[in-house]
Amino acid sequence: METDIVAETRDDPPAAAEDFESFYASTSDRVYRALAVALGDVHLAREAADEAMARAFVRWRQVKVVDNPAGWVFRVGLNWATSWRRKLRRERAFPETEHGLPGFEPGLPDGDAEAALARLPIPTRAVVVCRVLFGLSTAETAAVLQIAEGTVRSRLSRAKSALRDSLEEKP
Amino acid sequence: MNNLDHAVRTAAARVPSAPPNLGAVLHRARRVKRCRTVGAAAAAVVTVAALAATVPQYLPRRNVIVGDPLGGPSIGLWLDREILPKTQGLPSGKHVPGSSGEVGAQLRTVDGKPAIVVAADPQPGLSGLTRFGPAPLPGGGLATIGVSADQKSFRVVVTDAAGRVASNKPLPDLKTDVSRGMQMTGNGTSLFWWEVRAEKGNKSRPVLITYNIAQGTLSERTPSAALTGGELPYFGMQATESRIVEWPAEFGRTCSFELLDAATGERVAKFRPDIAGCSDVYYALSPDNRHVAALVTTRSGGERTQRVVVLNARTGKTVTTFDTPGPVTESLYGLAWAGHDAIRYARGDEGGAAPLVLTMKL
């Protein structure tokens, strides 16, 4: 099955496909976890990671030469999940607790800092994830998420502040 | 940055593992490529409608995605009718898979991934002699009526979504002959099935039995517009809180369905929807009772295909149709509503490759 698909992908000769396989093996788990933290939903994160990886495979020749292919996959997955979620919300407001769409997986955050992280908006969490899990600089984070560097700085500052507040509130 | 760093890394570490699945990604890539090809062609000349006809098999739509992002409880999966079931029925011998409300397996999330989990046979506390079920319940549980493990009495066993026994009570005496082939269904509080009561003068009448799961009690309802033998739901029943959809063996076809009031057993509506070429159909009523999803299997030349037709429960008219990738080679399949306007569809094999799960949005 996989061989057939590789053969069908005329843009990408077998060597490139092998290239992708090694990229997938080394980054898929990190991208999935990053999406899970950013989105607060492991099921959606898995779908988003697979979708983004599939898109990366189809465009592998272009994707593999960008500065940060894993960051590219993360952003595509994040955008895909955000669109999917927005579509659902626009058409009908799903009961949030029933399907766990927004919010973290029940029981996931148990520390004050984690709970504070879970309360941050997704765009802020995305910035934090880029900085911490992908080890990107402000400029690199801005490039990956296609936002201004000032926006990265302000979201990061907001995240730090939220965490600081949550820890100060601790009795 | 230390607290933030620690919180993010801890949260990431706590995310359930997802074993890499390159095959699934490459499979999805095929669809992405198709979409791109289709998009380019559309931009060039053709209308969207004409385009749909040119794409073989499965044209992904924006409201159908591969995967289960909404999640939810287990989905009951029926065994294809052409495959011999493993469970023993009463009376013993062959029975049609899916009869008696029986599902062969469930789609569950195991280690964070969708997986086919075969329904335990026998169900906990029961022998292998089953009268009804195991039938799927809303919320992912199963209900089974069968002979107790010590083979001394009939018992009603209800398990929760995790397979734990939530209720195990004796079945009150029905004073009817044991019959397999009739259906059973249940909602959060009750189980429902039809029985045929013998009456004087060599006559009989069907009665709707309601079993209260919490109390372990039975009640009988005789609808004013009593069903006849040919209209009894030999092929399937599925209940919501207030309605039951059932599909009889009318004229040997299973494309008709009717809706009952779950409280009284009275027939609310009966339809013969315009579904072409179906040889067997499973219906699922949406929680708000507004739509009925029909999982239609079409068999042609030894090949099976499936589609999900969503019908208006008030008019019986088709609202929309979702195709699934074909042909169907799997032996287990099913669907369940996720809220009022999304459907989760799954199919797969016991011990086979990863199941296919689609989310369809009205």
UniProtKB/TrEMBL annotation, chain A:
Keywords: DNA-binding, Sigma factor, Transcription, Transcription regulation. SUPFAM superfamilies: Sigma2 domain of RNA polymerase sigma factors (SSF88946), Sigma3 and sigma4 domains of RNA polymerase sigma factors (SSF88659). Pfam families: Sigma70_r4_2. This is RNA polymerase sigma factor. Residues 114-163 form the RNA polymerase sigma factor 70 region 4 type domain. It comes from Paractinoplanes lichenicola. Signal peptide: none annotated. Belongs to the sigma-70 factor family. ECF subfamily.
From TrEMBL, chain B:
InterPro entries: Quinoprotein_ADH-like_sf, WD40/YVTN_repeat-like_dom_sf. The chain crosses the membrane at residues 38-59. The keyword Transmembrane helix applies. Keywords: Membrane, Transmembrane, Transmembrane helix. It comes from the Bacteria. This is Uncharacterized protein. It comes from Paractinoplanes lichenicola.
